[in-house]
Amino acid sequence: MNVHAPALADAHLPDEQTSTFAKEAVEDLSQHPKRLSPKYFYDATGSELFEAITRLPEYYPTRTELAILRDRGDEIATVIPDGAALVEFGAGATTKVRLLLERNALKAYVPVDISGDFVRAQADSLRKDFPGLAVYPVAADFTAPFELPASIAGLPKVGFFPGSTIGNFEPHEACRFLRAAGEILGKGALMIIGVDLEKVERVLHDAYNDAAGVTARFNLNVLVRINRELGGNFDVSAFTHRAIYNRERHRIEMHLISKKPQAVRLLGTSLSFRPGETIHTENSYKYSIDRFAALARGSGWKVKQTWTDPNRMFSVHAMVATE
Question: Would you say 21 and 40 are in contact if contact means Cβ atoms under 8 Å apart?
């Protein structure tokens, strides 16, 4: 799952977003193998379930990254220039960014998120708590090109991309995102990025197959959302959650498995499922520190400094844009 909690989706999506959801869902579920984009996990229920996941005893990424930002915050602050503008890609809950705002003399904060209402509400909250900070929310899909506010044009830029969301991209997509972020922020800009690390497989398995079944409900909720918003007729009880570690590709894969032969109707399209057939809903790539540094180099960034927790479960990197 996306380990950077995204903004709560608007309860009623605008027509354009609904139509994009419909088009992608029909296309992706007509493929072999079938798939769905993980961005569609996050309606209001999905966002609440993800927040519950971050509090589970098995799910280490959120609390481990928070501990690094808190415990190594003074060291991280030494690489962030005073008077900079902090641009957060995919801004969600403000828990992590507050740890940076509290220890750095930043002049501006630019949260970027596709949910305009959510990001504006978060901006209002931060303005109250940080009255000396200029906050300029941007409603945009952070994976596509967007423009920064003109008012920060003359300030040093620092990107912030926590939660190991980079792991949800295919490696070539991660490279494309990092290049695009470098173009938006400009040469010489800094990026603080969270990256989940390779570790014992049992720890990974348990993190995505929790005993309470919250991750299973989170995964299955995408079918509930399709039924509600797109008029699908999925029998949600006829699917089960499975998360496995693909050793060869260094990634957790989340799937929904059909328990029986079945047919589903979605917007005039008939979708058939064999017993055991899967819908691949998400990947979460795990990196070694060296492999991530190599990915960064190939994407126009140089890792300047890296911090980990004592058990090397998770990492936070400071990178400089070289192109």
Answer: yes
pLDDT band at 121 (very low <50, low <70, confident <90, very high): confident
C-alpha closest to that of 110 among 147, 65, 73, 154: 147
**Predicted local distance difference test score (pLDDT) of residue 15:** 65
pLDDT for residue 18: 80
pLDDT band (50, 70, 90) for residue 1: low
Question: pLDDT class for 286, splitting at 50, 70, 90?
Answer: very high
- Give kind and range of the element (H or E) at residue 315: strand 314-321
Q: Which residue do the tokens 């008077």 mark?
A: 83
Burial grade of 81 (CB within 10 A; 0-12, 13-18, 19 or more): middle
Helices then strands, counting H and E runs in the chain, come out as: 10, 14
Residue in the block written with tokens 């990424």: 61
d(CA 137, CA 20): 24
The rounded distance, in Å, linking the Cα atoms of 110 and 160 is 10
**Residues 299-304: contacts with CB under 8 Å, at least 24 apart:** 299/174, 299/175, 299/178, 299/179, 299/182, 300/178, 300/179, 300/182, 301/178, 301/182, 301/191, 304/79, 304/190
What predicted TM-score, i.e. pTM, was given to this entire model? 0.90
Tokens (6 digits) for 259: 């328990």
- C-alpha span between 10 and 7 (Å, rounded): 9
User: Of 309, 307, 314, 310, nearest to 288 (Cα)?
Assistant: 314
**Residue 267 to residue 318: CA distance in whole angstroms:** 46
